[in-house]
Inverse folding.
């Protein structure tokens, strides 16, 4: 489950302790050289057998545990710096590693080793009239850049997912976690090397100043894809700079629509689950839409239960007639990802109005209809343009784990390449293998 | 088959006859308003049944033929302007329409009507342990921007492919073809309207100055994807400006490698076909690699046959020993897309050297091995990182038509989303339809 909690916008702007001593040209040259080496490593990874990749993942997990002292020591330096800079408690918690978190990181690597290898899978094979035998086969994407903020566990998680799917990675973490990230990356590389990990398959950019993000984002000859992991500010920065494709994990402004034919008890359970089970994540509910015909039966009771659970409600005028002491929602509320115990509430006249609201204000992430009317659900499925459209189920199920993907690198809000939860297959491309018997376009048999 | 012939770099920089009279803000507002209307049209298109889409395509074809006078008249104005500006004969030919070309355009629309509709196809359906019923279903991408140069037929072809796959399009053609493009777009919209085409489903940007490309490339709230159709200069410009994904159809620097175990007669036929059958296209051969062990048997004979067909050869030192009067190849030759009757020739020591050359100098497009050794072909398949890797077949077969796709919008050199020939399915995304029975993440049955 990717958390969409906003992180400090300063993450990528901070001056680095590790700024190169020479001119900006040095930094560019160093990062480009890393890209060139990653490209070579990617070609080797594309041909690595599954069992070897799994042995490397196990060896990296062992390495992390063996290097516990070094990693926690490096993390302590980051925590000291965070304290000195007055980082918030929430940010500091994201940064903190302890033996249990390190074990969870290692377990994550071992879990990825158990997942099916997507590389080499034949997606389709056919013989067109020209007699060629054409196979469409999954291959790695190549070199993936990961730009992230303060969570040091991303260093291991993202690198391992990219590695299992046959990709080389260039990691660029935030300055807060630089010592932790370096220690983890060093440990992964050393641990994996014994099992055959090419030295340049997983590389961490040693700089944390803004320029290194720009250099990465511009070097499309070496990077096939960038995945930013973090808040909107980080993603926006990468999008505005990048020459290569960026897969974005933007906000989840998720809706639940209670249709006139809804089971109201189910609607209440799904609303409470979507809003309160884990409010700080991208597939939590932010807006409740209620059909006018059942609003009087549903809203007062729902409001009472939600408030009991600490949820602040912000309603439109019709909602405030039914629940008089409701805060008035502003236009801004319809487009806000609260990530908190706040819920916007609107009464709508029809299914069409609900869908129009969602397509206008939503973020194409996870949207729910509660209804007993299969025809209404069918229209909602067809016309709501979101990664996951759910009928009588909590929005919280739009998640790689719940989908059975085993692991995910995030939940894409893009419609290109990968949409919704991104597991290992979404970290691959494909190529066509064409087997012929000397076929030519022109008849040149007389040669 | 997409032609990769270079077009005039001035295409997108030319001042427009139709420049808006007000400030740049007007242009931005107008283009954004087109985007917003396209978004609304896209939601309608996503729900349009296949038979209606096919009727619209037929109606658009009828409209084009009915509007022959207006379209050819508009084209005559473009041709006059081209003559006045001294446009080259090749450029002028690309621009020219006549009754036959117009009929071919209409036939293209009717052909697209016969192709299977990718939208709504269930790609996968499963039930994870949580009991949900999850279906992964093809949906349109949404709104696609097409930025192209002087060929007015792109207006109809690209719009029709995007439309059949349920997408709204915003077209932005070159200034040379502005009158032709306007007449075609007007005809398509009017023809389609009678069969239910939403008025904003196919829109042509009325401006041809550079600013309109920039505005399109930045409005990622309205455009889900941009596909530039034209030369490298155009694609580079779009890539450097775009905030949304760009699917690129860059050069084809395609190789044929004659292995030591090749059938030399077959190798010669495939070389001649790849180089001479249609030299100006992206899947034509540009470089011939020959294994040292068979170079003496193969190269002199191949050189004679190729020269007979008007091909200029440029060789490395080893090749020049075997064919003494060969022009010397420079480093630049290995990375040049000639699109002409020129072929670079290099003798390599091994399969590994051939693959290293291709992965270094190629453009990941179409690369061929000629060999009787299945193990060598297997390694070539695994390690050459190209959209199509062909064994004993001409590079010219990497083509949507030859693959049986029916029609293609181009041959992608990207590895994200679509790679190789892009047919209708490659113009779609997907979403997850989740059917539940009230499932929640937390147990809140006591509510």
């Amino acid at each position: 489950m990717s958390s969409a909690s906003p992180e400090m916008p300063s993450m990528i702007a901070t001056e680095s302790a590790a700024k190169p001593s020479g001119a900006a040209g040095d930094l560019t040259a160093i990062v480009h050289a890393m890209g060139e080496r990653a490209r070579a490593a990617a070609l080797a990874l594309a041909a690595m057998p599954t069992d070897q990749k799994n042995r490397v993942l196990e060896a990296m997990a062992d390495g992390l545990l063996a290097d516990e002292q070094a990693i926690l020591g490096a993390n302590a330096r980051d925590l000291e710096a965070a304290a000195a800079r007055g980082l918030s408690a929430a940010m500091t918690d994201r940064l903190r590693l302890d033996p249990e978190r390190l074990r969870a990181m290692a377990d994550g690597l071992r879990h990825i080793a158990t997942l099916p290898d997507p590389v080499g899978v034949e997606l389709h094979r056919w013989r067109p009239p020209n007699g060629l035998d054409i196979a469409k086969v999954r291959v790695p994407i190549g070199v993936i850049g990961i730009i992230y903020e303060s969570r040091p566990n991303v260093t291991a998680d993202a690198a391992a997912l990219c590695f299992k799917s046959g990709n080389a990675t260039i990691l660029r973490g935030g300055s807060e976690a630089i010592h932790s990230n370096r220690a983890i990356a060093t440990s992964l590389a050393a641990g994996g090397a014994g099992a055959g990990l090419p030295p340049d398959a997983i590389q961490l950019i040693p700089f944390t100043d803004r320029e290194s993000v720009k250099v990465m984002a511009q070097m499309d000859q070496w990077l096939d894809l960038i995945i930013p992991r973090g808040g909107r500010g980080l993603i926006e920065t990468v999008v505005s700079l990048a020459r290569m494709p960026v897969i974005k994990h933007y906000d989840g402004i998720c809706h639940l629509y209670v249709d006139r034919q809804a089971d109201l008890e189910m609607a209440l359970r799904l609303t409470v689950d979507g809003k309160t089970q884990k409010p700080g994540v991208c597939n939590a509910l932010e807006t409740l839409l209620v059909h006018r015909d059942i609003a009087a039966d549903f809203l007062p009771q729902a409001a009472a239960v939600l408030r009991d659970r600490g949820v602040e409600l912000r309603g439109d005028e019709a909602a405030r007639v039914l629940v008089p002491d409701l805060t008035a929602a502003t236009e801004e509320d319809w487009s806000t990802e609260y990530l908190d115990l706040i819920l916007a509430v609107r009464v709508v006249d029809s299914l069409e109005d609900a869908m129009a609201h969602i397509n206008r204000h939503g973020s194409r992430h996870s949207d729910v209809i509660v209804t007993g009317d299969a025809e209404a659900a069918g229209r909602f499925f067809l016309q709501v343009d979101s990664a996951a459209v759910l009928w009588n189920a909590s929005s919280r199920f739009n998640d790689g784990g719940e989908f059975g993907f085993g692991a995910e690198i995030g939940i894409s809000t893009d419609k290109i390449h990968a949409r919704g939860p991104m597991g290992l297959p979404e970290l691959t491309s494909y190529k066509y293998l064409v087997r012929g018997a000397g076929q030519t376009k022109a008849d040149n048999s007389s040669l």
Chain B has two domains: 9-241, 254-401.
